[in-house]
Amino acid sequence: MRLFTLLTAAFCAASVTASPPFRGSALAARQKASLPHSFQWSSSAPLVFPKEDGRDVAALKDPSIIEVGGTYHVFASTARADGYHLVYFNFTDFSKANAAPFFYLDQSPIGEGYRAAPQVFYFAPQKLWYLVYQNGNAAYSTNPDIGNPAGWTAPKTFYTGTPAIIQDNLEGGYWVDMWVICDKKDCHLFSSDDNGHLYRSQTRLVDFPNKMSKPVVALEDTDNKYALYEAACVYAIRGGSCPGKYLLLIEAIGSDGQRYFRSWTSNKIDGKWKPLADTEANPFARSNNVVFERGVSPWTKSISHGEVIRTLTDQTLTIDLCNLRFLYQGMDPATPGSTPYNSLPWRLGLLTPTKPKLY
């Protein structure tokens, strides 16, 4: 963590405007600062495990995380043989994350039944927290207080059913991983189908969460569905020369069968996505650009469904390049290949950058 602090301090110094007589050189440095064109990460040991509390949970998956006033709030999927649901916990220090009490959200008005892949954000115009998740549709619940897990409302959905364009492409896949991000005028809903398509719908900011448009294909790979698989997340970027840009991350399955993340950028949420670090040789996060902290055994080969830790809470989903951290799910590579999917032992770990490289 000390190395990460020094590196990011040097990186972010380029974004600070100096007082005369150094203003010109500082501005020149600021103009050069941008997203890395390649990434190197250090991973923690597994930080959070399922609890032995009679729930028979096999895995913690799909974390969504936000930091509010020094407290990290995490929503995640729980998986066991009979299906998925949601859990909430919070902590102030990652070293104590595993000791945080779990609140299973079937105890809230979200209720029982299939619920998975949460995303949490604060919608400032309504002064409400939104929890977006999948329940066979694109669902959401709201809550005025993120720290009150019993306060989430019963599920509502963005669509009346599966949109036609998704249904037409769904054979052999699943409609998964809903994600909402807003700009000044519109809110956009992304989702995937495990068949190489990323979809996007939108509605006006003033109408959210209602009047969601028919989805369009935002990005696709018709040659290899595993290269554009699931777990998409989109962020607005703050820092360096990047304001006004957006970062898209999508989980892929590599040629070795392991999960990893690819990345793209765009000037608009509904614009064209330009590859950033999007190959197995140069990924956003994969086993070949992740090392493990000193004394930590390489406990996973997959860097799977996760999220950048957000400290700015509103619906723009803005992240700061000077404080880039990624909470993800990983799994013991010795897990037998015959293990049923719902019983795979996913755990949560944390990535921090080690070598920022600028354009």
TrEMBL record:
It is found in: Secreted. It is an enzyme of class 3 (hydrolase). GO terms for cellular component: extracellular region. Its EC number is 3.2.1.55. The keyword Hydrolase applies. InterPro entries: GH62_arabinosidase, Glyco_hydro_beta-prop_sf. The keyword Hydrolase applies. GO terms for biological process: L-arabinose metabolic process; xylan catabolic process. Keywords: Glycosidase, Hydrolase, Secreted, Signal. It holds the Pfam family Glyco_hydro_62. Its main location: secreted. It catalyses: Hydrolysis of terminal non-reducing alpha-L-arabinofuranoside residues in alpha-L-arabinosides. One of its GO terms (molecular function) is alpha-L-arabinofuranosidase activity. Residues 1-18 form the signal peptide. Alpha-L-arabinofuranosidase involved in the hydrolysis of xylan, a major structural heterogeneous polysaccharide found in plant biomass representing the second most abundant polysaccharide in the biosphere, after cellulose. Belongs to the glycosyl hydrolase 62 family. This is Alpha-L-arabinofuranosidase. It comes from Staphylotrichum longicolle.
